[in-house]
Amino acid sequence: MSLEYLKCHNLGCKLFRNPSEMFLSDQYSDSEYLAGLAVAVIMDGSRTFLIEVQALCASGSIASRQVNGIQASRAEMIISVLMKQTGLKLQENAIFLNVVSGVKLSETAGDLAVAAAICSSFLEFPIPNNIAFIGEVGLGGELRTVPRMEKRVNTVAKLGYKMCIVPKSAEKSLGSHGFEGMEIIAAGI
């Protein structure tokens, strides 16, 4: 039996063959790219979902943090790592983080997407909407692999994404698999 989910809107219901569609914007509205958006690949039991993480860095406003769907302590740790390891001057910005559709990001596999969304907003550098991120961010700025990497990357490939950013430590285990023409980028320090 194939997975089909209903998501109701004010104007009616929409049928989703892919449950991740509920957690992603409509291809970022009219724009191909928007700064501050990144796609994370998470697991709920044995199911893999792609979810959109949004970040807004606002300079010149009261330096505060507002977080929805991400543990505040985890978000603060990622922000601190970005400041220390990359030299980003985030302390002078209000930072707002949000996970779309009210999803709670409870596993560390979304760390890299959170960091990418923050950097994208701060640098005003949009991330193309066909890239997904998988990885945990360590205190030293290192990227760490997460459980079930192959299943996560395979889902990303099946959904038509062109690129997946993963920790360098996952490169060997993923390198021999064909992921339907998707490019795997191994990142790390």
UniProtKB/TrEMBL annotation:
Transmembrane segments: none annotated. InterPro entries: Ribosomal_Su5_D2-typ_SF, Ribsml_uS5_D2-typ_fold_subgr. Pfam families: ChlI (PF13541). One of its GO terms (biological process) is recombinational repair. This is DNA repair protein RadA. The lineage of its organism: Eukaryota, Viridiplantae, Streptophyta, Embryophyta, Tracheophyta.
